Structure to design on (665 residues):
């Protein structure tokens, strides 16, 4: 069963009652919330995602709810809780859905150490994955959103999960988080893309989420071999330039962006080295999305 | 009604062999609660040692795998940290007694298996404290708790320096000069503990407490600790130490006598009682009889049973009953009550409450 199979009233009722067990790639999260923003966000962005109705085991149990203090009413806030305990401070109520998304990221990056977790967007074409590592602001999410609208499969916009045993990327398709100017850029370039409401004044500025394509969600259980590592750098007005990145530097970039690298020790080093060996590594600066699309199409053609 | 040891984590620790047969529902509860109690890696290690990890259903198994990876990484980190500490304190010429997790690890004890470590605890002579702090600061450790109240709380009244955090490694080191504060009601003699400490072969200047003292320290720490989020983990430590050292009959004979000598008969009584209640630790009847000397009045024992049944189990919403929040609060106050005289306690708790309200209001 997928989320879209539940009528909105039923979705909200279950979400507020026993909770919804949502599958995102390898992770099943039991979500509980009485907030309409959360129900609406799930209905919109997770329409094609599976809901586990018979499973008795969920990887994480989370909730998004008003705090128990007077902040339920006065300048209302919301709190993300993991098994009843909040890992972050509360946020204004209108940020409920982004808070859920950040919370779901937190669950994975703090617990899924069976994988090497890299702070990178990752998309795939013809069974080959392109990793786009980079900190917030490097433009990886915008590039990821654009590629995904041009036929690339979304594996993740934020957390690249690498299976240390096989070297494959394990998909975790979830809404793509867009910030500030990127929101209008993507809306303008891809009118058919489904974007949720813009939430203003978050710690990252204005935030909106883009619904992942149904095809990406359908293929969420198919791991993909990595083939390219591309470090994106957006510079307004710049000409697009793809240059080879020496593998030693690519390794350091990947390691710097790997959340749990130190936990994996020697095996982590070997896993990253294997990934670097298997990939063509590039640096990529660009000023216009169309240029970027052309470059990536070229990469895919020459694979 | 909360019964000590009825929670899934205690059941898993008592009988890991049965775990592959648990239902997915039971595994769901276990993974969540063990994670909350800092015992997930311990469960994973138990299963791994029995060779039955592959028989665990796939969905929970990935969490056990992840927990094993974390435990391994932490073990290596603690060993490194101990080496750094040793280097920093070479010039001081003193012996460093490791306490708790770091001690179990370096001494190769079963209690270290699958353990989650948060910081390293060491015990040094009080006379050497200033020199030790100076040497540590030269090697990159900086004090925490910068406000004047906390600094004075630790230095004047407590048995330890304010926790030190290393500026690049971000690891935390607690330097103790006694196992209980000078203001506490019980007065174990630190000089005796240091005198009885054992060297660690191949590691000069590093020592650990003698086995009976290690057990007494574990029990004392647990029953004086205001933070019980690792309560069951500490009971598991105690259980592991007792089972391991308890293979020597001489250990049991020495244990109760040493407890009386160090004024720690009450914590030992509670330690043995709750280790049995939660984890069915085997304790010889003679030892239990001898430990009765530390037993509180019957009404107090009943009250403590009710409090600790709720306070030592994992701090998870599925386990809490109506009395659990109150029980935890009472244990918090009790821990402070044991560490300092009433007036000091009242002042301390007021200041902490005001500061917490201040933090929440901003």
């Amino acid at each position: 069963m997928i989320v879209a199979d539940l009528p909105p009233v039923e979705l909200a009722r279950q979400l507020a009652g026993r909770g919804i067990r949502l599958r995102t790639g390898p992770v099943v999260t039991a979500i509980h919330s009485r907030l309409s923003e959360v129900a609406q966000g799930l209905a919109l962005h997770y329409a094609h995602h599976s809901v586990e109705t018979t499973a008795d085991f969920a990887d994480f149990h989370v909730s998004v709810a008003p705090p128990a203090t007077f902040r339920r009413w006065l300048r209302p806030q919301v709190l993300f809780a993991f098994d009843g305990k909040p890992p972050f401070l509360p946020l204004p109520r209108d940020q409920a859905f982004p808070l859920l998304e950040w919370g779901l990221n937190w669950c994975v990056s703090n617990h899924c150490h069976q994988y090497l977790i890299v702070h990178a967007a990752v998309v795939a074409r013809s069974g080959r994955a392109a990793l786009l590592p980079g900190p917030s602001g490097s433009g990886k999410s915008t590039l990821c959103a654009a590629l995904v609208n041009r036929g690339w499969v979304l594996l993740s916009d934020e957390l690249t999960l690498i299976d240390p045993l096989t070297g494959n990327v394990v998909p975790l398709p979830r809404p793509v988080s867009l910030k500030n100017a990127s929101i209008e850029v993507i809306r303008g370039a891809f009118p058919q893309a489904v974007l949720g409401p813009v939430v203003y004044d978050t710690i990252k500025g204005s935030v909106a989420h883009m619904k992942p394509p149904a095809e990406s969600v359908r293929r969420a259980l198919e791991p993909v071999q990595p083939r390219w590592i591309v470090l994106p750098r957006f510079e307004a007005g710049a000409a697009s330039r793809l240059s080879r990145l020496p593998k030693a530097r690519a390794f350091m970039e990947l390691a710097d962006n790997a959340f749990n690298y130190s936990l994996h020790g020697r095996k982590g080093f070997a896993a990253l080295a294997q990934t670097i060996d298997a990939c063509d590594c590039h640096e990529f600066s660009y000023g216009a999305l169309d240029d970027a699309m052309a470059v990536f199409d070229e990469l895919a053609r020459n694979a | 009604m909360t019964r000590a040891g009825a929670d899934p984590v205690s059941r898993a620790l008592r009988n890991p062999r049965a775990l592959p047969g648990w239902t997915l529902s039971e595994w769901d509860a276990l993974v969540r609660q063990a994670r909350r109690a800092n015992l997930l890696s311990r469960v994973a290690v138990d299963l791994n040692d029995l060779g039955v990890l592959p028989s665990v259903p796939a969905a929970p198994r990935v969490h056990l795998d992840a927990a094993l990876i974390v435990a391994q990484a932490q073990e290596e980190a603690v060993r490194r940290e101990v080496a750094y500490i040793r280097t920093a304190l070479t010039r001081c010429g003193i012996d460093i007694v490791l306490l708790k997790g770091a001690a179990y690890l370096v001494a190769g004890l079963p209690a270290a298996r699958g353990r989650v470590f948060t910081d390293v605890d060491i015990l040094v002579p009080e006379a050497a404290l200033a020199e030790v702090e100076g040497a540590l600061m030269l090697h990159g450790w900086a004090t925490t708790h910068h406000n004047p109240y906390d600094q004075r709380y630790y230095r004047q009244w407590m048995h330890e320096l304010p926790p030190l955090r290393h500026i690049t490694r971000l690891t935390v080191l607690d330097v103790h000069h006694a196992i209980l504060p000078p203001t506490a009601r019980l007065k174990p003699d630190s000089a005796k503990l240091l005198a009885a400490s054992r060297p660690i072969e191949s590691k000069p200047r590093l020592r650990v407490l003698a086995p009976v003292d290690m057990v007494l320290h574990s029990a004392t720490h647990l029953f004086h600790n205001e933070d019980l989020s690792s309560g069951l983990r500490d009971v598991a430590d105690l259980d592991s130490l007792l089972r391991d050292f308890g293979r020597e009959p001489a250990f049991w004979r020495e244990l109760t006598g040493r407890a009386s000598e160090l004024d720690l008969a009450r914590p030992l009584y509670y330690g043995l009682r709750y280790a049995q209640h939660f984890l069915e630790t085997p304790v010889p009847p003679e030892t239990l009889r001898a430990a009765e000397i530390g037993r509180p009045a019957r009404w107090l024992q009943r009250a403590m049973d009710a409090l600790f049944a709720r306070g030592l189990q994992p701090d998870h919403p599925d386990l809490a009953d109506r009395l659990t929040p109150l029980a935890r609060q009472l244990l918090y106050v009790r821990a402070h009550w044991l560490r300092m005289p009433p007036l000091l306690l009242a002042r301390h708790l007021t200041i902490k409450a005001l500061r917490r309200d201040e933090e929440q209001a901003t």
Notes: The CA atoms of residues 220 and 267 of chain B lie 5 Å apart. The radius of gyration of chain B is 20 Å. Chain B has one domain: 8-361. The mean pLDDT of chain B is 92.
